[in-house]
């Protein structure tokens, strides 16, 4: 009652005060509403249903993975992250060895692929003749679509033999660096069997590097070619050489794209299955030595063991797959947020 | 001074040029000078000679790889030395960086081309036999020569599996991409985030999911249909993301123009947005197909393996090209390995074909037209003009000015 006497203005739209004298009814906010008509309502429903369906499928995949993996994770507890061996039916299983192998292969791949991809991207966007450029761009984009089994064939039948002298040279002269040492290799014995160098993390990393380099390269090239022409010309006008212009304009402008492209390549490298599976020989111990034979990766573990798995073993494989998925997910989201936040991403995201 | 050497100022093109110099000489605008070429050639020759000296006479080095690496390092050093004779510091660094960038780019491109050429070259023995394309492997044991057996079963399997996967993913993917762009809101943002997350799903995990649900839980046997489901799970996020980007590029002014004409949302989508984005959408679908065709790991878990032609995707094992490659090269027999390379070469050629199709279909931004589309639009607008002219038969100026109307 007191509020009504204090507030003579038209009250909330719930109802006019009863004490007011009769007059024109007070203004109430109009509901803005446009009837889209039946076809549009159908369209929206169909579109929403489509989106919801896709969402449901995606959530089903993720939820099912987590659900099935939970059984194994629950039983293994924290030892899932620290155990090396993979004998789920005996209760001893963990992803310490396979996860480390996956990460090492991906790191070797990135270390090799990023300089090559950066060089190629700079060459295509800055140095190549304009007529050549279109061909080179198509070539790199095509290479990103080459099936992984083709890279696997190349790795097994050509690279594995051809890389032996390099692996031997590195381990002979740089073997004092702990992770480059090869146990059982004798550099003084020319007749020593070279098998200690085959099927190693290094070879697998090189094959994966060739797979991810085109992806990284095409992202970097895209970003480099968006460097503003005004700033390029400004650098030239101040007397910069071409390399000076690249260092002061193109590379700072493309830094976000470079990091983002690298991390997208890392995401691909982590999940790569077939090429790695064809090249490596799987071991279930922690293998720091990248040049030594025998390594492991999560995806090749799944490809190797899915057929003979018991229901609980299946659950353990699901857990390994889920761990891999979470890892690539983190890498990809970090990559896309870096690309989106950088200056170069701001223009391409419009 | 590091960009271009100073040149004497040209005489201005005055009205009466002094007669003695004769006709004006054309200036060379290229930045390549003969001294640059001499420096590169000289450094290359010197580094090769010096490396040969080191390897053959002075040091106990050997091996082709070491030779190339040492020669390259020496080349960079000698090139820097030669350039520094007549240029200053920044110019020397520019030349060295240019040489390094060029060689890195060429190395990557050469390796990539080599990977493909190696596969095609190794596959040449199997590819020249016509039966390689018309028979399956049911009669060809490991020791049979190459003129028995082929990969028809794998070709059929690939076409069917990818076809089913496309039939599932393309409609749902494009509807989802339209939804993300045309019905914005918090729900669309959620869907976009989840789709982006699912592009990170490793392909083997997609295969494992279908293996655990369709094959183990539902108890069906391994089949081509299960394989295409696994491929769909993998391809769906890729196609949605690519289509989303393409639809986002459709200019907002086109949509607004359509709304301003009073058309409803679905008419705008159907008659403006999708036709404008058509070439980009085609490219997105074809590139997604190229990814799906080459995937081995989801198929490995779900399709099973057979040497016989099985045209029925719903029952029994069905093999596809990448899976056949993978299984064939496991054999120690040279003939089987040659067949494996031949299969990989066919797969490569299929991807190449898809890629060329994508280039022909795409490569144009939204709204850009091909020659034929342009001609058709010009035709249509000429017809409109004629009709309008017929409408105002009395007005004389109308028919004359109408054909000059510009076409979009």
UniProtKB/TrEMBL annotation, chain A:
One Gene Ontology term of the molecular function aspect: phosphate transmembrane transporter activity
GO cellular component terms given for this protein: plasma membrane
Compartments where located: Cell membrane
Keyword line: Cell membrane, Membrane, Phosphate transport, Transmembrane, Transmembrane helix, Transport
Keyword Transport: yes
InterPro entries the UniProt entry points to: MetI-like, MetI-like_sf, Phosphate_PstC, Phosphate_Transport_Permease
Membrane topology field: Multi-pass membrane protein
Chain positions covered by the region annotation Disordered: 1-37
A Pfam family assignment: BPD_transp_1
Listed transmembrane segments: 53-73, 93-124, 136-159, 196-217, 274-291, 311-335
Domain annotation ABC transmembrane type-1: ranges: 99-335
UniProt superkingdom: Bacteria
Record GO biological process: phosphate ion transport
Keyword Cytoplasm tagged: no
Record's compositionally biased regions (Pro residues): 9-27
Entry's family note: Belongs to the binding-protein-dependent transport system permease family. CysTW subfamily.
Summary of the function given for this chain in its UniProt record: Part of the binding-protein-dependent transport system for phosphate; probably responsible for the translocation of the substrate across the membrane.
Name by which UniProt lists this protein: Phosphate transport system permease protein
Organism whose genome encodes this protein: Streptomyces gardneri
TrEMBL record, chain B:
Amino acid composition bias (Low complexity), ranges on this chain: 387-408
Compositionally biased region (Pro residues): 1-22
GO molecular function terms noted in the UniProt entry: phosphate transmembrane transporter activity
Predominant location category: membrane
Any single Gene Ontology cellular-component annotation: plasma membrane
UniProt subcellular location: Cell membrane
Annotated spans, Disordered: 1-29, 366-408
The UniProt record lists the keyword Cell cycle: no
Its membrane topology: Multi-pass membrane protein
Biological process according to GO: phosphate ion transmembrane transport
UniProt keyword terms in alphabetical order: Cell membrane, Membrane, Phosphate transport, Transmembrane, Transmembrane helix, Transport
PROSITE patterns: ABC_TM1
Residues passing through the membrane, by range: 35-55, 61-82, 103-121, 162-180, 200-219, 225-247, 268-290, 341-362
This protein's record includes keyword Metal-binding: no
Pfam families to which the protein is assigned, alphabetical: BPD_transp_1 (PF00528)
Annotated signal peptide: none
Highest taxon listed in the record's lineage: Bacteria
Biased composition (Basic and acidic residues): 376-386
Domain ABC transmembrane type-1 intervals: 155-358
The protein's role, per its UniProt record: Part of the binding-protein-dependent transport system for phosphate; probably responsible for the translocation of the substrate across the membrane.
Family: Belongs to the binding-protein-dependent transport system permease family. CysTW subfamily.
Protein's recorded name: Phosphate transport system permease protein PstA
Organism this protein belongs to: Streptomyces gardneri
Organismal lineage: Bacteria, Bacillati, Actinomycetota, Actinomycetes, Kitasatosporales
Gene: pstA
